[in-house]
Structure formats: C-alpha cells, structure tokens
Amino acid sequence: TIEFVRATQLQGDEEPSAPPVPNQAQQKESIQAVRRSLPVFPFREELLAAIANHQVLIIEGETGSGKTTQIPQYLFEEGYTKKSMKIACTQPRRVAAMSVAARVAREMGVKLGNEVGYSIRFEDCTSERTVLRYMTDGMLLREFLSEPDLASYRVVMVDEAHERTLHTDILFGLIKDVARFRPELKVLVASATLDTARFSTFFDDAPVFRIPGRRFPVDIFYTKAPEADYLEACVVSVLQIHVTQPPGDILVFLTGQEEIEAACEMLQDRCRRLGSKIRELLVLPIYANLPSDMQARIFQPTPPGARKVVVATNIAETSLTIEGIIYVLDPGFCKQKSYNPRTGMESLTVTPCSKASANQRAGRAGRVAAGKCFRLYTAWAYQHELEETTVPEIQRTSLGNVVLLLKSLGIHDLMHFDFLDPPPYETLLLALEQLYALGALNHLGELTTSGRKMAELPVDPMLSKMILASEKYSCSEEILTVAAMLSVNNSIFYRPKDKVVHADNARVNFFLPGGDHLVLLNVYTQWAESGYSSQWCYENFVQFRSMRRARDVREQLEGLLERVEVGLSSCQGDYIRVRKAITAGYFYHTARLTRSGYRTVKQQQTVFIHPNSSLFEEQPRWLLYHELVLTTKEFMRQVLEIESSWLLEVAPHYYKAKELEDPHAKKMPKKTGKTREELG
Ligand code: ADP
Ligand code: MG
C-alpha cells in the first residue's frame, strides 16, 4: 500500500454537502435537458449580447462549463452562420477536435461532417455544408495559406487558449491582424484558467466574460515519501482507491501511449488475479492515437456496481470532460518538448508538470460532488519542485515549420511579429538558418520556389524537403511511404506482454540492411502486397490501425505531389536512392561513431541508438536520425545508415569535406560486441 497524507483543499464554489450534480450521462433526460444544465446556459443571452457588442471577447470558465460544445451552437442558433459563413473553433489536440465535434453533431441531431465537422491534419471530416468547424489550431493556421483574411469565417474561437501551444500563439498574432481589417469578424478567446488578463491586454484590452464555476471542493492528498516507480505506484493506488473508497470513477494522468497501455495492462492483470474478491473495475485508456470507437467508450456511463478508471494523457486535463469522476490520481508528470537553440536539438521528455497543471488535474475530481485528488509526490515536492506555470511551447520548440508558414504568408520581419510571448531570439535565428540550409529561403531570407513548395506540404520542413528530393532521385513512391510511416511513428509494431518473443522476432524479420526507414518501407510494402490485410497485420504483430492511418496519410501526400511538381516514380529496389533522398531532408540530424560513441556531426552532442532500432547492433559509422527522445539518455529514434560523401552531395552549402573526414577510420571496430541488454 501507499500511504497518503491529506494536506490541502482545493476550494469549491459549492458546499461540500450540497447534493451532487446528477451524473448527466446516466440521466434519462433528453440531450436538450443536459445542455440546459450546463453552467454556461444561464448566461446564453448575456454572452450573445457581449459577442454582438465587442469584436474580441475573452471567455473564461471552468472546464466542463460548456464553452467548447455550447458557444458555437449558440452562435449557430443566433444566425451567425447565415449565408454559409463559417465558425471555427480551434483545439490544440486532435482527439479533442474529433470528440467535441462528434458530441456537438449529436446534440444538434445532424450527421458528423454535415453542418458540424472537424478537420485535423490528414483527416478532413467536413463538407460544403459544414458551418461549425472544429479543427486543430494547426489546421486553422494552414487556412491562412489559402485564405489570408479568413473571409469565409464569421467567427473564430480560439479555444483552450491557456494551453499556449505554438500554433495557438501564432494564431493570436495573425488573427489580431486580420481583425483590424475585418471589423465584422468576431474573435473569441476561450480559456479554462485565470490567466485571461494576458489575453485581454494582448487584444487591446478586450473585455473578459466570466462564466461562474460550479465546482465542489477537492481534498488533496500527498504521498509521505517520494515514489521511485510512479507507474507501479499508480497501479497500486488505483486498486487501493477501488477497494477502500466509496463509489465514483477514477481519472489517472499519465504521459503517453506506451505508459498508458502498460498501466492498463497491469491493472487488468491484477484485477483478473483478484477475481471476485473486488468489485468490477473498468479500465479505459485515452490518448491521441487511440481509435475513435475506443475513445467514445470513456464517455459511456459506468454500469451500476462497477467503477471506471480512465487512464489519460493531458488531454483530460482541460480538453475533455468525463462525467462521474470523483477521484484523481496524479503522478505529476507530463511529456514535454524541449529545445536547445544552441545545439538545435529538440527532444521529448517526461518532466514534472506545473502547479497550474496539477491544480487543473485536481479540479477534475470536483465536478459532480466533493472529490479527492491523490498526488503521487510529496507536499514538499509540490511546493519546491514544481514550476508555477508551464512555459509556452513557443519558447521550447523549434520554429522551422512556423517560420516557413509565416514567410509564405508574406510576413518577413519575424523579429517584430506580434507575439504574445516572443520566442528566444536564437531559436528564430536558427530556424532561419535551417530553412536556408534546406533551400527554402535565399540568402536574403526570402522564400524560394522550393520553399513555397515545402510550405504546401502539411509536414515538417525536413520531411517536405525529403519528399521534394525524391524527384531528383526518382523514388517518390518509396519516399511517400517512408513519410507516411514516419508520421504514424512508434505505433507500428505490436508487442503484447505475453508474446514478447514472438513479437520481437516478427519485427526482426522486417529488418533490411540500411536502417529503420527501410524497415518501415518494407513493412508497408509487404502489407500492401497482402492486399492491405488485417489478418496479415495480426500474424506479423503489426498494428492494423496504424497501417490504415499510414495509408490515408500516404494517399493525401500523393494527392499533393502534383502541386509541388514531383512525379510518381519508383527506385525499383535501388535503396541507395531512397536513402539519399532521406538524407537530403535530414542532413541536419546526423551522427557519427567516434571512439566514445555517437556524436552529432555539427554540435558534437553525445547520442545513442534506440535499442528498438534495427541498427542497434550494427553501429554504422555514419547515420541520420528522425528524432531524439530523451529518457535515460538522448536516444535517436528511426535511424538510417548513410555515407558521409552523400552529405556533400545533398548539402554542399552546409557541409565541408574537411569536417567529414574520419581520422579514426581504420581503427574503428565494426561492432562493439555488446548485447542489447548491456547497452539498453
Ligand atoms: P468546456 O469547453 O467548458 O470545458 P465542454 O463544452 O467541453 O466544456 O463540455 C460540456 C459538457 O459536455 C461536459 O459536461 C461534458 O461532459 C459533455 N461532453 C463533452 N464531450 C462529450 C462527449 N463526447 N460525450 C459525452 N459528453 C460530452
Ligand atoms: Mg473545452
């Protein structure tokens, strides 16, 4: 067991003894009655009046008050979509955009994709008729490319503004500008937290509309001592809550798919072993890549007598509201991007979440009745180790993508762009340098023809460069596949706990000399040859859903080839050409083997091949990687063996022959002789 101590209480707006809000999902009442029960409903008229009277309105309200699902509907009912004018509502997360759009379509009694739809990268569920458009913030950003003044939009609602994602932050600057030229455009900025003053100031002191909260108090508990293994601690605590606490569902915050799947498996495993000694516990995961039918399950009411535990990423912090949660279990971590502008290295790391985040999470326990939040860290750690708020993404990510987009929109002077919080100067500079090296910008910082094409493709600049380069190496068929497979990254292979050996063997069977990109290509090609069969996936421990998604992405990219003047062609098995095309995009991400292991070529950073890589034991002298992931070490994920001479071929302006000389060439052992276990 884990010992928790009760320390503080998150104040509620309701008395702890007040009767609990009926669990809406379990109510037999009509969907309209549920709508009327939401905190925003009594303010409908007042809100619509405020929107009518102001061009920009900041809306602040507790999560679950109905901002996302109700306000666009109010606007629709009020006639804002007359003459086919559209309403955009942006979400930082794909899952949220899909899920709320589905919910709103149901509330309005229309088919998803008709009046209400969503649009996320590589998936467009909208039609000519779609006037309520839920979309990721990144998609609205791309809308500017085809419609710089957003002329077909009557209202833009930037939702979840407190998340301060890179795309949301950039949207702020662009929308503020458009609003000046289009006085009839309504701008709503919706946020769950109290940080709305910043938004108001940014939008020339726009008024703030507050939707009063309705939250019960939440008792906060901390562990007595730090927990070494928070995953294990999570599982133990969930069972502890299940056995000792009165009815009410549990929400657990973990950092990503792998962790969530592991936790769910552990929980199911232990429940099975406890058998009828405990009441039924429904274990439900929710994360970005979860298929939508599985996502929908978290919203289904818990059967009487049972308890539901939802194991979620940050998505459940503010983007999604699940009814019936009374207990929150918070290990205090989230996965965060970090970026070092000095080295140009971006990595995804599990880091402690902020206090603001921890309190949002705790708040999720008090929606229907007084709740409890169990934090898997000490009160001291909360006080002394957590940051107050999360640093906005714009200050901890690479900006290549965004700079390319802004340049395509004709915004040249990026230093003076209207940022809510400006990115570090070095990061901007490095983005410009990288785009120059990729040939997207000329020496004056102007967009080149190639840069214009790169901006057309909805992928990172390096990936678009790789696709463009496939023209030169006549291998666009293969490169499209590689690009598609890379974008469903890390969810291709299935590795069930009880069949680890079989699964690993199946994976090794796909290995091809050259590296992981070719392995991905191999998996896809064989799958295509099987007639895109699900049975084939099952037999080869490949995730059918990921493959299906890769196929979708591939089709969409293929559809864009003509626009960027790349013809379809195949390398006919000459994989050197494929590898060169990949190198043409990723020459920034290269490493060489030195006597002390791998070092990145330019910055001399120490890096390691991920143990899952097909090249883990090969240890080639030169390689490129798709991405870096920092766990225990800085791991390169998806690596490809290259030759140093290719770097001179694909990026002569970036590499000089001298820096690619290999002084230890003769002394290098080909293999280190160590096993996976020793190194991993
Ligand atoms: P906010 O944006 O203010 O956080 P929402 O509009 O997302 O609030 O949520 C309002 C209500 O709609 C919540 O009570 C939530 O439970 C419900 N809801 C949202 N999405 C779904 C869904 N997919 N299924 C069932 N209920 C949902
Ligand atoms: Mg919302």
TrEMBL record:
Organism of provenance: Rhinolophus ferrumequinum
Top-level enzyme category: hydrolase
Catalytic reaction list: ATP + H2O = ADP + phosphate + H(+)
Region (Disordered): 661-680
The family this protein is said to belong to: Belongs to the DEAD box helicase family. DEAH subfamily. DDX16/PRP8 sub-subfamily.
Quaternary structure, from the entry: Component of pre-catalytic spliceosome complexes. Component of the minor spliceosome, which splices U12-type introns. Interacts with GPKOW. Interacts with TRIM6. Interacts with RIGI.
Keyword Transcription regulation recorded: no
Compartment(s) where it occurs, according to its Swiss-Prot or TrEMBL record: Cytoplasm; Nucleus, Nucleoplasm
UniProt entry keywords in alphabetical sequence: ATP-binding, Cytoplasm, Helicase, Hydrolase, Immunity, Innate immunity, mRNA processing, mRNA splicing, Nucleotide-binding, Nucleus, Phosphoprotein, Spliceosome
GO MF annotations in UniProt: ATP binding; hydrolase activity; molecular adaptor activity; pattern recognition receptor activity; RNA binding; RNA helicase activity; ubiquitin binding
Protein name as annotated: Pre-mRNA-splicing factor ATP-dependent RNA helicase DHX16
Residues of the Helicase C-terminal domain: 237-410
EC number: 3.6.4.13
Biological process (GO), any one: antiviral innate immune response
Highest classification ranks of the organism: Eukaryota, Metazoa, Chordata, Craniata, Vertebrata
Function: Required for pre-mRNA splicing as a component of the spliceosome. Contributes to pre-mRNA splicing after spliceosome formation and prior to the first transesterification reaction. As a component of the minor spliceosome, involved in the splicing of U12-type introns in pre-mRNAs. Also plays a role in innate antiviral response by acting as a pattern recognition receptor sensing splicing signals in viral RNA.
Domain Helicase ATP-binding: from-to ranges: 48-212
Highest rank taxon of the organism: Eukaryota
Entry's Gene Ontology cellular component terms: catalytic step 2 spliceosome; cytoplasm; nucleoplasm; U2-type precatalytic spliceosome
